[in-house]
Design a protein that fits this description.
single chain; about 325 residues; alpha+beta; six-stranded mixed sheet; two-stranded antiparallel sheet; 11 helices; 8 strands
Amino acid sequence: MADHDHMLLDAAERIFADLCDKAALDAAERGEFPLPLWTTLAENGFPTLAMPDSGAELGDAFALIRLAGRYAVPVPLAETLLANRWLGSADGVSSIGRVAGQQVVDVPWGRQAETVLGLDADAGAFVRVSCDPGAADVERGYNLAGEPRDALTIPSGTEWIALSEPALAFLALARACAMAGALERLLALSLQYANEREQFGRPIARFQAIQHNLAVMAGEVAAAQRAADAAVEALQGERFELEVAAAKARVGEAAGVAAEIAHQVHGAMGYTYEHQLHHFTRRAWAWRDEYGGETYWQQRLGAHVAASGADALWPFLATRG
């Protein structure tokens, strides 16, 4: 990553640190769109980072998504980044959902979007729906983390546009990166709490059982980070979709283990709504199922390995070619 790209991420982190506190996350869960956060991101050009003419590498956009996951950023940043890339334009809040019958469903902040793309991965196309933010005909919904996941009706005669890139894989990679970022935060929160919380006159981090759990958690977080990094490094390469399959499956597994340990370390405190832990564990649980869960991507990966034959297995595992 070039120095100017590090500067972009440093600027983004300052914005997230200032505007993504627990109060903002709680408000977003009540359905309040964090307009100051979005306006600040837009004024600094972050929603255009994935566009071909942005001057940044595509991998930088996924680095931004990972950073956003570390702060549980409550805006459809990943969807807007990718929608702007595929539409070739940036116009307000954009989002992406999946086509189900005559609707686009599971749309992050569909109620706030000006443009929604409905993905039909099997057909290899998406439909573009222009929206009126706040329109009453948007069916409001939420995922496990309390993030808006809305549904919109597809108007008759709406144009379908052929996919120019493997959209589902891009979206799955976005969730894998976001989960990797959230897991980094879970580990940091757990280490901080274990060193602050005392029992029997000493920090619980001094107890062997806690140390063991934190070591397991750290290993899972490291594996998730490397899996996400490998998929980003494979962008626009021949193995891209296979690397995404491995990343989404591995990061999803890590999310389950890390979230469990984080709650065990925090004890009863971690289960309260007043604590910030749940904003990250519930996102990790919700994101692991979005754009294909572990089983879906493991089946995709297994189908490739089976079709390639036994002699190709070791070269496939041992090389990046």
